[in-house]
Structure formats: structure tokens, C-alpha cells
Design brief:
The protein has 2 helices and 8 strands. It is mainly beta. The protein has a 4-stranded antiparallel beta sheet with strand order 1-6-5-4, with no helix packed on it. Strands 2-3-8-7 form a 4-stranded antiparallel beta sheet, with no helix packed on it. A hairpin with a 3-residue loop joins strand 2 and strand 3. The radius of gyration is 20 Å and the shape is elongated.
Length: 141
């Protein structure tokens, strides 16, 4: 596979520091690690990356390519004040900012990369160059 998921996991030292510096009363702590689940597909003409990121608007995302790195990130302003002054009793989820990076192969047409966001899934299509799509049968002499 030519599209490679990069290791975005922090080192043990960083996890240790985050644990002991964590304010357990702040449920909206944006420094916690959030790596959205990702599926990567390949067919003859393109790669497709699906990232599960519900709760965002398409304006919250930033997708860019630098050299051979596809970087996908999202920033959502989180208000610590509840407009209705409701007291939070229990929290199982929060919408967190994230950044994911993928190494892309040289056969990707960077200028033709497209992204769509629908029902909580960000889909990025990375078309392959024509040279990589062509199949050739090699005769045996």
C-alpha cells in the first residue's frame, strides 16, 4: 500500500506528563489526545481516506499537502460557558480538535485531491497519476 498512516501517538513521557498535569475538573481539556478513526481504501484510479469526525462543520477542517505529507486537522472553538447555565452532571463525549498526518505516495495527483464532509465522515479522494493506473501484461519469451 502506498498511502501510509503516520504514527500520531505521543511518547510515553508525554502521556505521563499529561496524566499528572491533567485537571480532572475540566472535562473540556483540549490537550487530551484525540485520534479520529480512519479507513483507507485503494482502487485502480485513486486512494480514499475516510475519517470519522462528527460534530464539526466543513469550515472547521483544514487539509493541506506539503511534500509527501497529507495533513488533516480541525479546530472547533469550545465555549466553557453553558449558555443555558445548565450544570453538567455526566459527560461521555466532547468534540475535540485534532490533527492527522498521512504519508502519500508519489503517484498521487496533488492538484486533484478532493474532500467532502457528510453525516460525520470526512472523505478525501486522492487520484492516482495515469502512469500508475496503466496495467501492462509482460509476455514471457
Amino acid at each position: 500500500m502506498l498511502l501510509v498512516k503516520r504514527n500520531n501517538q505521543p511518547t510515553i513521557e508525554n502521556l505521563f506528563n499529561q496524566f499528572f498535569n491533567y485537571d480532572f475538573t475540566d472535562q473540556l481539556d483540549s490537550s487530551r489526545i484525540f485520534n479520529p478513526k480512519t479507513n483507507i481504501f485503494e482502487d485502480e484510479k485513486s486512494y480514499k481516506v475516510e475519517i470519522l469526525v462528527s460534530g464539526f462543520k466543513k469550515e472547521d477542517f483544514k487539509i493541506d499537502v506539503e511534500k509527501d505529507i497529507l495533513k488533516v486537522s480541525a479546530q472547533k472553538e469550545q465555549s466553557k460557558e453553558n449558555k443555558n447555565a445548565d450544570k453538567l452532571i455526566f459527560r461521555e463525549f466532547s468534540i475535540q480538535n485534532f490533527e492527522r498526518m498521512f504519508t502519500i505516495s508519489k503517484d498521487v495527483k496533488v492538484e486533484e485531491i478532493e474532500a467532502t464532509y457528510d453525516t460525520g465522515i470526512l472523505t478525501i479522494r486522492l487520484p492516482k497519476s495515469e502512469e500508475s493506473v496503466v496495467k501492462k501484461l509482460i509476455p514471457i519469451k
